[in-house]
Write a structure and sequence with these properties.
By secondary structure, the protein is mainly beta. Helices cover about 5% and strands about 40% of the residues. It folds into two domains: about 140 residues, RlpA-like domain (Barwin-like endoglucanases), CATH 2.40.40.10; about 90 residues, Expansin, cellulose-binding-like domain (Immunoglobulin-like). A hairpin with a 2-residue loop joins strand 12 and strand 13.
């Protein structure tokens, strides 16, 4: 299924104010891709088998990171230096996770959701916001997530798997502060499904070209989108697609913007 949507960048209903920055969760381990949290506060409880994707990661433990948007101890690997944007924080919620950085291409998990199931039978869907050093397949979690998962056991054994996120509204596109028509880079936030690729069609690209994923989860076009209208196409892990078209030049106030799309994956 493909959902195609278009709007003007100047519409205040479609983007945040430049310089809002963001807030990233801290935690010794970072996470990549994924989205978790329901109704802005994070989602708990289990997903159905139809909403789980890929490998089950076993043999790890969950730890109180802490992982938080204020970055009380560590910078979140999936965030800019200004932290996660307030609008993104509100949508993605407080159930957060940081992954073990031994996972191949771990930055591809930035802002995705994972379902965590403990050996004691507790479960929660968490949003990945950072990654870092920990033991094999272990995760760090936010205080809100720890409260749901913890039963007082030790060691705190668990498994996790990529999952569909609760519906918390539209996708966000958070552009790096250095973005322009000559070099364009962004994060995709709040997607309900893990992403397999992100592409752009623009003045510089008559056909869709795939953006390059960075170690901080950014998606970059080193040649830039060019001036004028551009369309971003998101492809999820299940093959479904959504597109958002922005009718404004990237060098006309796009740097540092957090712009909201018109929809999300079902």
């Amino acid at each position: 299924m493909v959902a195609a949507l278009a709007f003007a960048c100047g519409d205040d209903d479609n983007h945040g104010n430049s310089g809002t920055g963001g807030a990233a969760a801290s935690g010794g381990n970072g996470g990549a891709s994924g989205a978790a949290g329901s109704a802005g506060n994070g989602g708990s409880g289990g997903s159905t088998s139809d909403d789980l994707y890929g490998q089950v990661y076993e043999g790890g433990e969950f730890h109180l990171g802490p992982v938080d948007y204020e970055e009380t101890e560590w910078h979140n690997a999936c965030a800019p230096l200004t932290k996660y944007a307030p609008a993104v924080r509100a949508a993605q919620g407080e159930l957060l996770a940081g992954l073990w950085n031994g996972i191949p291409d771990v930055a591809g998990y930035c802002d995705a959701c994972i379902q965590v199931t403990t050996a004691m039978g507790k479960s929660a869907v968490l949003r990945v916001v950072t990654y870092g050093d920990t033991s094999n397949n272990s995760i760090d979690v936010s205080p809100a997530a720890y409260e749901i998962l913890n039963s007082g056991e030790y060691p705190r054994h668990m498994t996790w798997q990529l999952a569909k996120c609760p519906d918390t509204g539209a996708v966000f596109y958070e552009f790096q502060t250095g973005s322009s028509q000559w070099w364009t880079s962004l994060w995709v936030r709040n997607a309900r499904l893990p992403l397999s690729k992100v592409e752009v069609q623009s003045a510089n690209h008559a056909q869709y070209v795939e953006l390059e994923r960075g170690s901080d989860g950014t998606l970059t076009d080193a040649a830039g989108f060019g001036a004028g209208e551009f369309t971003i196409r998101l492809t999820a892990i299940d093959g479904s697609e959504i597109t958002d078209t922005f009718v404004c030049p990237p060098d006309n106030g796009i740097a540092g913007q957090t712009m909201r799309g018109q929809g999300n994956f079902e």
